[in-house]
Amino acid sequence: MKIGLALSGGGVRGVAHAGVIKALQEHSINVNQISGTSAGALVGALYAKGIGMEEIFHFFEKSNLFDPKIFAFGQAGFINSSVFIDHLASYIPENSFDSLEIPLTVTATDLNAGKLRIFKEGELYLPILASAAFPGIFTPVEIEGNTYVDGGVLNNFPIDLLDDCDLKIGSYVNKVDLTKQKLKHSYDVAGRAYTINQYQQDKIKFSQCDLLIEPDLFNYGLFSFKAMKDIFEIGYKSALQDLKNTTIFD
Which of 38, 150, 202, 211 is the most buried (most CB within 10 A)? Predict the structure, then answer.
């Protein structure tokens, strides 16, 4: 039985994907294909290389995203995406999709063409960085003369990119709290509107999942770096509960 795993974007909430995968591994569920966007592309690449979940957690912990040394002054973003090549290479020494143990597909948004681009072969580092280049925060990534940013702009939940799979598992870390909320500031309103719009686009694809794991991460934002351990544990426990309640692997 071939199993596919789709990992959504979601900023630091993507650390929950590592917790989800840890639970899958404990249940002896072997993944044969991975698709990922943004943080999901990063976790997917590390997992596809065979790196353990605790080490993937440390990858994010050691990234030092807001170190002033990596600020991108005078560029189209606060943080220079290119500085992460060395960090990624320290975990995945070979700059090639072919070096991965599990086939991986990642998405990035081509700002020049206004289209989604799908990467699954050739050089690895730049497509991964492009997929995770959140607009306005990270500088865009240049690949073959084109400018790319976060794949989540056009496909935040790439479950549709899994092919030739008997079962599809989705790990989605952007679940929206639809209860009434107090919106005190203009940025609260804007952020809430963006989140709801993104969720409604992604929700259309949920029916493609044989198993959807959707951790409750309402209290954590895209850049809640101090809460990474909690986010990891929530992903892990959510997956354990969903696996307990499903019969698809029986």
Answer: 38
Question: Side chain identity at 203, as an amino acid letter?
Answer: K
Which residue in 31, 53, 42 sits closest to 9, CA to CA? Answer: 42
Q: Which residues are catalytic?
A: 38, 150
Residue 7's DSSP bridge partners are: 36, 171
Query: How does pLDDT run across 176-227, given as a tens digit for each residue?
Result: 887 766 666 665 676 667 778 889 999 999 999 999 999 999 888 777 888 9
pTM of the model: 0.92
